[in-house]
Amino acid sequence: MKVAVAGCCHGALDKMYETLELLQRRHNVRPDLLLCCGDFQAVRNEADLRCMAVPAKYRHMQTFYRYYSGEKKAPVLTVFIGGNHEASNHLQELPYGGWVAPNIYYLGYAGVVRFRGVRIGGISGIFKSHDYRKGHFECPPYNQQTIRSAYHVRNIEVFKLKQLKRPIDIFMSHDWPRSIYHYGNKKQLLKMKSFFRQEVESNTLGSPAASELLQHLKPTYWFSAHLHVKFAAFMQHETNSKEELPKATKFLALDKCLPHRDFLQIIDVEHDPNAGDSLEYDAEWIAVLKATNSLVNVTQSTWNMPEKNGLHAKWDYSVSEEAIKEVLEELNHDLKIPCNFTLTAACYDPSKPQKNMEPVHTINPQTTEFCAQFGLTDINDRIQQAKEESSGRGECEEEEEEEMDSTGSAEEPSEYNTDNSGLSSFNPDEIMLDEEGGDEDLSTCSVDPSPDHPPEFSTSFSDIRIMPDSMAVSSDDAMDSNNEELEKSGGSKQVEEKSSTERSLKRIGGDENGNSGVKKIKRRNQAIYAAEDEDK
Predict the structure, then answer these.
(1) Where is the Lariat debranching enzyme C-terminal domain (predicted)?
(2) Which has the closest alpha carbon to 223: 146, 170, 276?
(3) Tens digits of residue pLDDT in 518-530
């Protein structure tokens, strides 16, 4: 089957779907599935905009609300993960995944689903070591810290994914797995993004948690976004035994969704021709969720996952074939994910803007139903309970809770000691939060929804690239031919092209003469927003 893969969507759903329709008209290619690797921005209303970690002047409504309200419907099944610029309050309603609109499915903090027999997994957010060992404690209304920590990857999600034994066909992460750049054309990458050099040379660019998952899961394909540059790599995995067959992962990072950008990739994926056209639960993943349910943590206390170090009675939470069989029997062997999308918030009305709408903590019926069906903890319900208990007893125990570890291993060191997971050096493609409203009062910040009819872009077919022969990339291809792809999607065209919208934005970083310590960049990518991320 044909799978379309997109990078950072930034709420431009109309643009993305129009490009797919153009592909069908011109080349008679119709994807069966669309995957989006984060920064999807499922913004329903003005309150959601307040929960997105970007400066106020970049909070635009975009077009998702039309799909949420039912005015439009996604023309192709769309599955996405979260990034670091999301309506976190909306996605938080669905920690185990669920429908954010008809035909648009969110994988949750981490998740695995099946479509036509193809096994698709993903992990949302980006890595930051100072939040990695905490529980999911955040809830709206967010403050300056939690609006960012809400999208930081947690060790429990990585631990769950590492319990999987069955092969994964496709995996998605927002930030890149650390070290993946050593398996592609690093020279060409640094030619296009010279400000990555320090992190690449010190091997600190990307997520160590994602790298750990890549080594463990060894999926056939791994797709990422976040850095807004197209990059291909081919990683041959080491075998653990002579009996184990060699495995390799074809990695592809996608550019962001903007006109005249090569932001869509089409690949051919082997599938089960006898499988149905519905999105399905993955039985092993459901069994893992049930097995690890006792590990759910909704506090700020830092803790490590169980491991074989003498401190834990149990450390292996992988599931048996019998446990998987029990899940299948519970579902009567019907794994189809119910189409139970429900509106949980008012939808944006361009004729009646509500700039002072406040976010609230919502428990989504989809999550309630999912947890009841499989006997899982509703994380948002637990958070509300914890808040009520905390307000009842006061905050006198806060310091004690910070020092305690819920697994009895508070003195264990963190799995990762560094925090250089993303863009620690200056990136002219990024919009910094520190000087552009990132410290504003979130309860009173102004919201600037885009007009009901935003400027239309003339769709360029350079937005699409069809991968030949199931994205068959050799190590030589990764070093040479894929660089031609990179040059086509960037280079001088990326520097010189300017839309009328981009010209109106002033460049950030360095003084007015462009003295920032890096090569002066002529254009601005106004949709990227990635913070100092973000958190220092």
Answers:
(1) 235-380
(2) 170
(3) 333 333 333 333 4
Q: What is the mean pLDDT of residues 203-215?
A: 96
Q: What is the pLDDT of residues 430-483, one digit of tens each?
A: 444 443 333 344 543 444 444 444 433 333 333 454 544 434 443 333 444 344
Residue 89, number of CB atoms within 10 A of its CB: 25
SS3 485: helix
Average pLDDT over residues 121-129: 98
Helix (H) / strand (E) containing 370: helix 365-374
CA distance 534 to 129: 13
**Per-residue pLDDT reduced to its tens digit, 470-487:** 344 433 334 443 444 433
171-201 burial: b if 16+ Cβ within 10 Å, else e: bbbbbbbbbbbebbbbebbeebbebbeebbe
Q: Parallel, antiparallel, or unpaired for β 104-106 and 2-6? A: unpaired
Closest C-alpha to 343, from 141, 61, 86, 71: 71
Single out the residue of 466, 166, 145, 468 nearest to residue 288, CA to CA. Answer: 166
Helix extents (H) in 150-277: 155-161, 186-192, 197-202, 208-217
Distance (Å, rounded) from C-alpha 4 to C-alpha 426?
Answer: 31
List, for residues 310-322, the tens digit of each pLDDT value: 888 899 999 999 9
Do residues 3 and 46 touch, judged by C-beta distance below 8 A? no
- Residue 474 has a pLDDT of 38
| Cα 488 to Cα 4, 182, 219, 228, distances in angstroms | 19, 21, 27, 14
72: left (phi over 0), alpha (psi -120 to 50) or beta: beta
Pairwise CA distance, residues 454 & 340, whole Å? 31
The whole-angstrom separation of Cα 468 and Cα 266 is 9
For residue 244, the model assigns a pLDDT of: 73
500: left (phi over 0), alpha (psi -120 to 50) or beta: alpha
pLDDT of residue 445: 43
Cβ neighbours of 234 (radius 10 Å):
20
- Let me know if 468 is exposed, middle or buried by CB neighbors in 10 A (0-12, 13-18, 19+): exposed
Q: How far is 87 from 68, CA to CA, in rounded Å?
A: 13
Coil vs helix vs strand at 295: helix
Lowest mean pLDDT among 96-105, 326-335, 498-507: 498-507
